[in-house]
Design a protein that fits this description.
InterPro entries: G_TrmE (IPR031168), GTP-bd (IPR006073), GTP-bd_TrmE_N (IPR018948), GTPase_MnmE (IPR004520), MnmE_dom2 (IPR027368), MnmE_helical (IPR025867), P-loop_NTPase (IPR027417), Small_GTP-bd (IPR005225). One of its GO terms (cellular component) is cytosol. It comes from Salipaludibacillus aurantiacus. GO terms for molecular function: GTP binding; GTPase activity; identical protein binding; metal ion binding. It is a single chain. This protein folds into three domains: about 100 residues, Probable tRNA modification gtpase trme, domain 1 (Gyrase A, domain 2), CATH 3.30.1360.120; about 140 residues, Four Helix Bundle (Hemerythrin (Met), subunit A), CATH 1.20.120.430; about 160 residues, 3-Layer(aba) Sandwich (Rossmann fold). Helix 12 links the parallel strand 12 and strand 13. It contains 17 helices and 14 strands. The chain has about 450 residues and is of the alpha/beta class. It is about 50% helix and about 20% strand. Helix 6 packs antiparallel against helix 7, helix 7 packs antiparallel against helix 15 and helix 11 packs parallel to helix 12. It has a seven-stranded mixed beta sheet. The protein has a seven-stranded mixed beta sheet with strand order 9-10-11-8-12-13-14, with helices on both faces. Bound molecules: the ligand Nc1nc2c(c(=O)[nH]1)N(C=O)[C@@H](CNc1ccc(C(=O)N[C@@H](CCC(=O)O)C(=O)O)cc1)CN2, guanosine-5'-triphosphate (GTP) and magnesium ion. The site of guanosine-5'-triphosphate (GTP) has 17 residues, from helix 9. The site of ligand FFO has 5 residues, from loops.
Length: about 450
């Protein structure tokens, strides 16, 4: 594969202790040597060593920077190509100046994610592993990070490969049956088809069962706090943020840039709308009416419905319950430090089998119980302590669903007594769909689109 030498700044843009200019490609080491002055040329350094020296401007001979330079020789590197990492003093000017010199020597400025893209194109990692790298960078909680790390290490890839292998074996059997019909092995072929098909389907189901949690871990759980004015919604938000340290991030969405606030509640990342958004939804019943509340509730995956212990239930409260039917709702009866005027039996009845938690946010009571209720809602059973190979990526989930459907079709066709070569078409299709998860036979534009989501220099 024809690959030029690329370079980029791999550390965040801003003032820092150290800034790294990364170079990858055939000419990386030679190119860096044109700028480097140290004990010996980088070409003579052992691979995976870091070397002290200076960067000089080849035109003027001026010393530009004092540096440490890592030399990483192909093929055992991040990209499988020759790589150099120049560790500069971390000022914007310094790192930019060194990058400029590297580009002057003939390197091309890397596109976002291009180093990782090369790791993929050069076969060190597959597509789902590369996607794991993005998730790793974006992970908001330890748990999300564990899931991403597992994917980077190829745990999901291995499971997918195992399933593809099983499908391949069935296809091979069918082929024998088609090529040598005189063996009259049809009966046996059908049996194998049935067995392997059901096995793969079951495994896909198991993977898909992790998808809901996986997706929440990766993207956060969109959460809205609703309730009549003055019940304590803002106090609830504040207390969740205080206890759990809000992580403020700006993730560029595809259509708009939104500031999202993440609150990590016992491993469940809650994606709260930005403060403006939350303020807007606060006294939604009174101010904006039922239609608006319905929209807000429908847009969220978790509804925190706040009531006032010190007031009788109102029609508006009942309406909020009605609107949130069919959603994940935790009811919070707040202000338990004040006299109980609410009809708790009625509240429990309205909540049905969904959790009700009593709090006094003023006295900081009941928040633990609320957090526990949130955790239980999303980590019921014991998925969390499993091997952490969750499916978390919408692209993967869609492909797995399609593959499962295709296998269903195959099993159905078989039961209907269709000829085996018809069944084979479906099995092959399922094999291809699973292949797309790990980047087998995916289009160039999809690859470009995936890697463009990376940071510059990754
Ligand atoms: N300075 C620096 N820090 C970094 C990275 C980097 O590229 N540079 N990484 C990148 O973002 C991450 C580490 N990831 C890496 C993954 C694979 C290889 C690598 O060289 N793999 C070789 C095996 C090398 C060996 O066993 O000695 C290989 O798989 O062949 C390097 C880094 C995090 N920290
Ligand atoms: N006694 C008591 N007061 C509380 C409690 N929680 C909140 N409050 C008070 O209730 C008032 C309203 O609290 P907020 O958190 O602003 O309520 P809100 O639902 O956001 O109100 P709006 O934004 O006006 O809809 C404030 O004066 C709080 O201090 C509680 O548990 N007990
Ligand atoms: Mg408020």
């Amino acid at each position: 594969m024809e690959m030029d030498t690329i370079s980029a700044i791999s550390t965040p843009m801003g003032e820092g202790a150290i800034g790294i200019v990364r170079i990858s490609g055939d000419d990386a080491i030679q190119l860096a040597d044109n700028l480097f002055k140290g004990k010996r040329p980088l070409a003579e350094a052992e691979t995976h060593t870091i070397n002290y020296g200076h960067i000089k401007d080849p035109d003027t001979g001026d010393i530009v920077e004092e540096v440490m330079v890592s030399v990483l020789k192909a093929p055992r590197t991040y990209t499988k190509e020759n790589m150099v990492e120049i560790n500069c003093h971390g000022g914007l000017t310094s790192v930019n100046r060194v990058l400029q010199l590297v580009l002057n020597e003939g390197a091309r400025l890397a596109e976002p994610g291009e180093f990782t893209k090369r790791a993929f194109l050069n076969g060190r990692i597959d597509l789902s592993q590369a996607e794991g790298v993005i998730d790793l960078i974006r992970a908001k909680t330890d748990r999300a990070m564990n899931v991403a790390m597992n994917q980077v290490e190829g745990k999901l890839s291995q499971r997918i490969q195992k399933l593809r292998q099983a499908l391949l074996e069935t296809v091979a059997h069918v082929e024998v049956n088609i090529d040598y019909p005189e063996y009259d092995a049809e009966e046996m072929t059908l049996e194998i088809l049935q067995e392997k098909g059901s096995f793969v389907k079951k495994e896909i189901d198991r993977l898909l069962q992790t998808a809901q949690q996986g997706k929440i871990l990766r993207e956060g759980l969109s959460t809205v706090i609703i309730g009549r004015p003055n019940v304590g919604k803002s106090s609830l938000l504040n207390s969740l943020v205080q206890e759990n340290k809000a992580i403020v991030t700006d993730i560029p969405g595809t259509t708009r840039d939104v500031i999202e606030e993440y609150v990590n509640v016992r491993g469940v990342p809650l994606r709260l709308l930005d403060t403006a958004g939350i303020r807007e939804t606060e006294d939604v019943v009174e101010r904006l009416g039922v239609e608006r509340s319905r929209k807000v509730i429908n847009s969220a995956e978790l509804v925190l419905l706040v009531l006032n212990n010190n007031e009788p239930l109102t029609e508006a409260d009942e309406e909020l319950f009605k609107l949130s039917e069919g959603h994940d709702v935790i009811t919070i009866v707040n202000k338990t430090d004040l006299e109980e005027k609410i009809n708790l039996n009625r509240v429990r009845k309205l909540a049905g089998n969904r959790p009700v938690v009593a709090t006094s946010l003023l006295k900081d009571e009941g928040v633990d119980e609320l957090e526990e209720a949130i955790r239980e809602l999303f980590f019921e059973g014991d998925l969390e302590t499993g091997d952490m190979s969750y499916v978390s990526n919408s692209r993967h989930i869609a492909l797995l669903n399609q593959a499962k459907k295709t296998i269903d079709d195959a099993l159905g066709a078989m039961e209907a007594g269709m000829p085996v070569d018809m069944v084979q078409i479906d099995i092959t299709k399922a094999w291809e769909l699973l292949g797309e998860v790990i980047g087998d036979s995916v289009s160039e534009s999809l690859i470009d689109q995936l890697f463009s989501q990376f940071c510059l220099g990754k």
